[in-house]
C-alpha cells in the first residue's frame, strides 16, 4: 500500500514539475503515473550501476556529479515514455532538482506518521 501512495505522490510531483518548467512537457496524469513507475524502476536498476561506475568523478566533484546522473536518468525516461518530453540536458537537470524538492514536500505533508 505504501508503494502505491509513493508512486501517486511521485506522479503528482511529476505533473507539478512539468507544469512549472517550460522545457518539460507531461501530457496527462496517466503519463505522469507511467513516468513515475519508469523513473522508480530506473532509479532501482540503472542508478546504482552509474553511481558505482562514476565513483572517482563523484568524489572529485564532492557529490555534485550525482545531479548529472539524475539528469541522465530523466533523459533515458524521456526516451522510453511517450507523452513526456524534455527539451535538453539543462531542462532535465532542472527537472530532477525541482522534482526532488516537490517530492520531498509532498512526502513531508502526506507521510507524516
TrEMBL record:
Recorded superkingdom: Bacteria
The name this protein goes by in its record: Phage holin family protein
Pfam families in the record: Phage_holin_4_2 (PF04020)
Keywords: Membrane, Transmembrane, Transmembrane helix
Tagged with keyword Membrane: yes
Transmembrane segments: 7-37, 49-77, 89-110
Species for this entry: Agaribacillus aureus
PANTHER family listed in its UniProt record: SLR0284 PROTEIN
InterPro entries in the record: Phage_holin_4_2 (IPR007165)
